[in-house]
Specification:
cell membrane; binds adenosine-5'-triphosphate; alpha/beta; ABC_transporter-like_CS; four-stranded antiparallel sheet; Rossmann fold; 11 helices; 11 strands; membrane; 283 residues
Length: 283
């Protein structure tokens, strides 16, 4: 525990009594540039007049799982959505600063957000398959982008990587909506990885699932990190500890307070408020 944290504990943990810590100094462990998938530089977000994200500068490592945790409303989804410009779809959202992907700011005028989202895919909290066949759910985006390779092979590969192939290989023509919730979510993961993105963003991908389906999705996330950079928002602290290599902790109205190795953050956080959050004292 840091000296600052010890002092806070000894004094009855004033930081845990709900005050707004405007003075919280971020503790950001830097990822080497060579191993960075996405870097944000002073990234800020406002919804109308309301600030949702304070200037955030962090490097997210490639081919690892980064968990984004923090209490409700602290800006986790807002941050995640900036990374592939999903906030563009929200009229009142205003974004400042930079998101560098392969050294290029994704907010530059010449970046096509649709093409960007093929390289930085996204999976949402609630499974949202298209009302189409299992096959077409995976093939649809590829067809639209004019994929000229072996479509059947790509669909199979994507379903295999999403750990769903064995369960659906004999019913590829059935509706995706007829699958169980957990299978639907793995279908959405297959759909997201079909264009072979480099990064997969996941916004609470297991929170609508039962424990068995959650466990399958967690295993899958760990496996996906062998090929992809995975950035996952979760409310579930144990899940973050189980599946992630790095953890980013957001607190107090949109501030990234700590970023670093998951093991270190869960065993020895820098800030008292982070410790209070991860031990369940608030949030
Ligand atoms: N489309 C929107 N329009 C206006 N305000 C928004 C919008 N989306 C989010 N906000 C506000 O921005 C802040 C951050 O929201 P965000 O959803 O990013 O937080 P979160 O940490 O992901 O929350 P949760 O864990 O509850 O999903 C909140 O105050 C929220 O009310």
């Amino acid at each position: 525990m840091s000296q600052e944290s010890q002092t806070a504990s000894q004094e009855g943990s004033p930081a845990s009594q709900g005050r707004i810590d405007d003075d919280l100094e971020p503790s950001i462990e830097s990822t080497p540039e060579a191993h960075t998938a996405i870097e944000t530089r002073d990234l800020e977000v406002f919804y109308g007049e309301e600030r949702a994200l304070y200037p955030t500068s962090v490097r997210l490592p490639e081919k690892q799982v980064t968990a984004i945790i923090g209490p409700s409303g602290c800006g986790k989804s807002t941050f995640l959505r900036c990374l592939n410009r999903m906030n563009d779809l929200i009229d009142v959202a205003r974004i400042e600063g930079e998101v560098l992907f392969k050294g290029k700011n994704v907010y530059d005028d010449d970046v096509d957000p649709v093409a960007l989202r093929r390289r930085i895919g996204m999976v949402f909290q609630k499974p949202n398959p298209f009302p189409k066949s299992i096959y077409d759910n995976v093939a649809y985006g590829l067809k639209i982008q004019g994929f000229d390779g072996d479509l059947d092979a790509r669909v199979e590969e994507s379903l295999r990587r999403a750990a769903l192939w064995n369960e659906v290989k004999d019913q590829l023509g059935s509706s995706g909506l007829d699958l169980s919730g957990g299978q639907q979510q793995r279908l959405c993961i297959a759909r997201a990885i079909a264009p072979d993105p480099e990064v997969v963003l996941m916004d609470e991908p297991a929170s609508a699932l039962d424990p068995i389906a959650t466990s399958k999705v967690e295993d899958l996330i760990t496996e996906l990190a062998e090929d992809y950079t995975v950035i996952v928002v979760t409310h579930n602290m144990q899940q973050a500890a189980r599946i992630s290599d790095k953890t980013a902790v957001f607190l107090t109205g949109g501030r990234l307070v700590e970023f670093g190795d998951t093991d270190r953050i869960f065993s020895n956080p820098e800030h008292q408020r982070v410790e209070d959050y991860i031990t369940g004292k608030f949030g």
